[in-house]
Design goal:
The protein is mostly helical. The protein has a 3-stranded mixed beta sheet with strand order 2-1-3. α3 packs antiparallel against α4 and α4 packs antiparallel against α6. It is globular and about 65 Å long. 36% of the residues are buried.
Amino acid sequence: MFRLGELLCFFYREMGTNQTSITEFLLLGFPLSPWIQMLLFGLFSLFYMFTLLGNGAILGLMSLDSRLHTPMYFFLSHLAIVDIAYACNTVPQMLVNLLLPAKPISFAGCMTQMFLFLSFAHTECLFLVVMSYDRYVAICHPLRYSAIMTWRVCITLAVTSWTIGVLLSLIHLVLLLPLPFCRSQKINHFFCEIMAVLKVACADSHINEIIVLAGAISVLVGPLSSIVVSYMCILCAILQIQSGEGQRKALSTCSSHLCVVGLFYGTAIIMYVGPRYGNLKEQKKYLLLFHSLFNPMLNPLIYSLRNSEVKNTLKRVLGVERAL
């Protein structure tokens, strides 16, 4: 897992641009009493298990039922993969910190964790935009849907989303690695979040913070605006549907996506575009806990509980298991 971070660190040390004088960081996590930390360890472990099972179930159902082999569920499967990777990147380290608060994380491991977190976050932003475009085409241009959303287009959109997400994260990593980290080993967070890491650099990181803010605006505010425009068009198209059943089906599909968009973009915008001073800094750490732990767990519940096709597929699979 840490191979990427080790290679990049080695590259910058060889070039003489990295003045890092420490080899590991200590994540402070949450300043709580030991028994509360043990309670949180059990609770967060349960949530983590639900995240893996829920998103894994989404992937399994889509692979088992050919009726779910459509563009909408193709993008939903990628969203489930992102959520699994998102949780696996941050939650295990948090659980370790709850059990062993004094256990450090290596410099290479910290840089890799930060890079992966940003990659998955950027990618999820883009997939939510792609999914809104898919719903726009399905509802506003239903007769041309199969001609527009071909499998070639779907694969291109998926590959583009993953590629842009990784490249944007690589920019942040390349700008951060040359900074010397000699001020402190203590990061006031439960994982290597980029703003928390920049706080322990002993050089001026003002440019890095500006780049982070600019990147957040480009992948949050811009895409969210396009989603809002898409759903305004979708709402107008739904109101023109004569059948009440057709309106309910369209609204059910779109409401699931809107719930996920609201949870993801709402918390992300508050963390990276909102105010950066006062007690809000500490509050944002707990908000990021919700963003990285609860969002991936809630996404499959939202899509399964509000989507009749997913529920019907689950019933058929459970019916087969009972018959066996």
